[in-house]
């Protein structure tokens, strides 16, 4: 990650800091102090899903249709209730095709950084590339 960051102009890194990700987050902060910590909670998941839904329905998310893993990953996410039954949340079951929706959650990490003007038709200077 450090080599990629040095070779390109990186403006945003969002890291799932839940569980073992906390260690990754601390290491990345050493060379990229602006890294954003994302802790998965029902509220955070809802925010991420609603942002993705808005971005997709307004036609602002584009990707090559050959990347079927992206589509299957988003489709694997479903709304459910927390174990206590007091709040709604989003989850994905693990499958070989969607692999626990990891690709969709990673894309949603990036979408959290999209400027507010993008939703109202303003131009977003952000480019998201997947390797």
Automatic annotation (TrEMBL):
InterPro entries per the UniProt record, alphabetical: Terminase_6C (IPR035421)
Start and end residues of each Terminase large subunit gp17-like C-terminal domain: 10-113
Keywords of this entry: Viral release from host cell
Gene3D superfamilies xrefs: 3.30.420.240
Protein name: Uncharacterized conserved protein
């Amino acid at each position: 990650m450090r080599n990629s960051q040095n070779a390109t102009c990186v403006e945003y890194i969002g890291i799932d800091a839940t569980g073992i990700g906390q260690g990754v987050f601390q290491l990345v902060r050493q060379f990229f102090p602006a890294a954003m910590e994302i802790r998965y909670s029902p509220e955070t998941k809802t925010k991420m899903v609603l942002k993705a839904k808005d971005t997709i329905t307004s036609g602002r998310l584009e990707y090559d249709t050959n990347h079927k893993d992206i589509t299957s990953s988003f489709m694997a996410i479903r709304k459910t209730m927390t174990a206590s039954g007091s709040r709604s949340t989003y989850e994905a079951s693990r499958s070989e095709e969607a692999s626990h929706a990891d690709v969709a959650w990673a894309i949603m990490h990036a979408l959290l950084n999209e400027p507010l003007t993008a939703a109202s038709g303003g131009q977003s200077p952000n480019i998201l590339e997947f390797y």
